[in-house]
Write a structure and sequence with these properties.
778 residues; alpha/beta; TIM Barrel; Rossmann fold; Immunoglobulin-like; 29 strands; Putative glycosidase; signal; multifunctional enzyme; Fn3-like
């Protein structure tokens, strides 16, 4: 408003032919020059390097990015530098740098979580894909990347109209170690390889530009939460106080691989450190984990950011330092670059003045931050004149994007049980369908957490009603199901040709800051299911909507429950996808990305025990399919189809020899394993060819999972996933599926000290019931 009054004053005096005071004229001219010199704006959004500020070297696109960043950093005062250590970064008007908000989210679509993104009447919604746990169940590498490309296009479109940032703190690639974890839904599951493939694929989809230039970013992704983070709030232990005690072996063969892959294979622009401590040190203050591993070993090209208020947490909740200035210094010296929160903004200057950290260390941090913004084109001037500058509201919620959301849900849905003659239902034979259950007509439940406003919803009831006539009763007031309305539900089921029960959970039961304490379906859902199944005259299809698994042994063994589907949180088009599978318009091919345990497992295993491997002495059964020794309800990788698929081995070696130098100790003494070293591993790979045939009457996709059971050395996994492929086959169709196996990468194990070794001896490769022994020798 001040500018309006100044301009009006000058204008009025000129119009009235009155003298303009020199002071007022000088001030006004200076103000005009400053406006033209500094920040420019497109669509109401300020951008850097427009107008007069474009003459600075840091705005010169012909210079190398590091030279541009160095020029910018040297022009800032200490106080200005500190404003670039926090997510709500400050502006520097004299250099034409506008404010920038780093915190945006895109877990499964552009999200309204975080202050960097919002929806409006210009862009009222964005494509909301299934939660990652269901997307991962597709076991489709190309799909993960395709979703990332759609999300980044919609994100850029929203950025161009001032509704989003360019830095998105997604994906979540923590291992779903314990079935009670409330955030398991955000992850790709329990397997390090699947999680790695999902994470690096989604990141490539988000980040890669059309030009393929690795020094440019479409948007910047962030892999989180580093590391060994998978407990939120369980029986009085919360993530702000939890110290994850992790062996070196478990760290390097379970918790770290997805992050390593995210940096090395995905070229991710950021890693977020977590709230918890690992072996007594807060991750955001650990120089070994940050500077040593992420920056040193993996060579991150980007920035390291805290989870929100993590420094405040380790100062106030964990009492890791005596003063806030010391806490700020420890984070920066550990290798942290950006603080989600205000802590570094408040206490860094005091840390510098107190001699706890140098200004050079701050320069290093903001250099990483500015380097990321350079790669995004933030300092390249008018966004509308840059690559992706043409994107806008028309590119959000396109029919193609919405169809991909539906296709993703279809590919992820897992068929767990199917009695002959049950599914698929006939759209013509079914004249009445009873839809029962607290998740039968839900909207927001389908998109889980870290969500955005979707383009539109198709509820399960709407999806099913679009195919056949339906009747509906929720059967419970909500998913907690304090009292099941059994009578209404059984009457409906008794009168219908078939019944679909849609139960499970929502964010009131499993979510961030809220872990489960058991594996039972909530409240009286089990009673509702059992009684409806008894009363039903036709097939009974149980549909479970959830992130985590349940002990549903009762349903698995109940002959009246003829089919069971797990549908995760299936996204905006979840209801349509569920109907597609139930009525046979789509042949299910999803596989479980996590083990479904019996209740007895969580009765004896505390969530706080981080050990992956079993301990026979104490009766501890271990965790995940790789190590768990007990009974399961459904195992990792389980899922059936409306077709039967046969596998046959076409090509695979029976022996692999590893070349060793003549004086190697293993020539003269017996060795269980060999160190993985680069010169030994070069060109040490082989191909496996599998013939796959669809024996059924229905065409569909098939998920091929290749496992290895290594020799029993170094407390190695019982089996572990080497690779997976998705293949589409028509009825009676055949295809050749090829895997390339790198001996040092795929057949290695991690020893007790955290070193990767190739296990010598017999490895058993298996796909389904097909097994092949491979002898690895020197």
């Amino acid at each position: 408003m001040a500018s309006f009054f100044f301009f009006s004053s000058v204008q009025n005096r000129v119009l009235q032919n009155r003298a303009v005071p020199k002071a007022l004229l000088c001030f006004t001219l200076c103000y005009i020059l400053m406006l033209s010199f500094c920040m420019s704006s497109v669509s109401g959004q300020s951008f850097a390097c427009g107008g007069g500020s474009s003459s600075f070297p840091f705005c010169d696109k012909s210079l190398a990015a590091d030279a541009r960043v160095a020029d910018l950093v040297k022009r800032l005062t200490l106080q200005e530098k500190i404003t670039f250590l926090v997510n709500s970064a400050g502006s520097v008007s004299r250099l034409g740098i506008p404010k920038y908000e780093w915190w945006s989210e895109a877990l499964h679509g552009v999200s309204y979580v975080g202050p960097g993104t919002k929806f409006s009447n210009v862009v009222p919604g964005a494509t909301s894909f299934p939660q990652p746990i269901l997307t991962a169940a597709s076991f489709n590498n190309s799909l993960y990347e395709a979703i990332g490309r759609v999300v980044s296009t919609e994100a850029r479109a929203m950025y161009n109209v001032g509704l989003a940032g360019l830095t998105f703190w997604s994906p979540n690639i923590n291992i779903f170690r314990d079935p009670r974890w409330g955030r398991g839904q955000e992850t790709p599951g329990e397997d390090p390889l699947l999680t790695s493939n999902y994470g690096s694929g989604y990141v490539r989809g988000l980040q890669q530009t059309d030009s393929g230039d690795k020094n440019r970013l479409k948007v910047a992704a962030c892999c989180k939460h580093y590391t060994a983070y998978d407990l939120d709030n369980w029986k009085g232990t919360d993530r702000y106080h939890f110290n994850a005690v992790v062996t070196k072996q478990d760290m390097d063969d379970t918790f770290q691989p997805p992050f390593k892959s995210c940096v090395l294979d995905g070229n991710v622009a950021s890693v977020m450190c977590s709230y918890n401590q690992v072996n007594g040190i807060p991750t955001c203050a650990d120089p070994n984990l940050l500077s040593g591993v992420i920056r040193g070993e993996w060579k991150l090209n980007g920035y390291i950011v805290t989870d929100c208020d993590s420094i405040d947490v380790y100062y106030k909740n964990q009492h890791y330092t005596k003063t806030p200035e010391e806490a700020a210094a420890k984070a920066i010296l550990a290798g942290l670059d950006l603080n989600c929160g205000s802590f570094l903004g408040q206490y860094t200057e005091g840390a510098v003045k107190g001699g706890l950290v140098t200004e050079a260390a701050i320069d290093k941090a903001i250099t990483n931050n500015f380097g990321t913004l350079m790669r995004l084109g933030f300092f390249d001037g008018d966004p509308s004149k840059q690559p992706y500058g043409h994107l806008g509201p028309k590119d959000v919620c396109t029919p193609q994007n919405q169809e991909l959301a539906r296709e993703t849900a279809r590919q992820g849905i897992v068929l767990l049980k199917n009695t002959p003659g049950s599914l698929p239902l006939s759209p013509t034979a079914i004249k009445s369908l009873a839809v029962i259950g607290p998740n039968g007509n839900v909207t927001k439940t389908m998109i889980g957490n870290y969500e955005g406003t979707p383009c539109k919803y198709t509820t399960p009831l709407q999806g099913l009603t679009a195919v056949v006539p339906t009747t509906f009763v929720a059967g419970c007031a909500d998913v907690a199901c304090g009292t099941a309305q059994v009578d209404d539900a059984t009457k409906l089921a008794a009168a219908a040709d078939a019944t679909v029960l849609i139960v499970g959970e929502n964010q009131s039961i499993e979510t961030e800051s809220h872990d489960r304490i058991d594996l039972h379906l909530p409240g009286q859902q089990t009673l509702l299911i059992t009684e409806v199944a008894k009363a039903s005259k036709g097939p009974v299809i149980l549909v479970i909507m959830s992130g985590g698994g349940f002990d549903i042994t009762f349903a698995k063994n109940d002959a009246k429950i003829t089919s069971i589907l797990w549908v995760g949180y299936p996204g905006e088009a979840g209801g349509a996808a569920i109907a597609d599978v139930i009525f046979g318009f789509y042949n299910p091919s999803g596989r479980l990305p996590m083990t479904w345990y019996p209740q007895a497992y969580v009765d004896k295993v505390p969530m706080t025990n981080m050990n992956m491997r079993p301990d026979p002495a104490s009766g501890y059964p271990g965790r995940t399919y790789r190590f768990y020794t007990g009974d399961t309800v459904y195992e990792f990788g389980y899922g059936i189809s409306y077709s039967t698929f046969n596998h046959r081995l076409v090509r695979a070696p029976k022996q692999v020899s590893i070349p060793l130098e003549e004086d190697h100790v293993c020539h003269s003494s017996s060795c269980q394993s060999l160190d993985v070293v680069e010169e030994r591993c070069q060109n040490l790979d082989f191909d496996i060819h599998l013939g796959v045939k669809n024996m059924g009457k229905m065409s569909g996709s098939h998920t091929v999972l290749l496992y290895s059971s290594p020799p029993s050395v170094h407390n190695s996994p019982k089996k572990h996933l080497l690779g997976f492929e998705k293949v589409f086959l028509s009825s009676q169709g055949e295809a050749l599926v090829k895997f390339n196996v790198d001996v040092c990468k795929h057949l290695s194990v991690v020893d007790e000290l955290g070193s990767r070794k190739v296990a010598l001896g017999d490895h058993v490769l298996h796909v389904g019931d097909l097994k092949q022994t491979l002898s690895v020798r020197i």
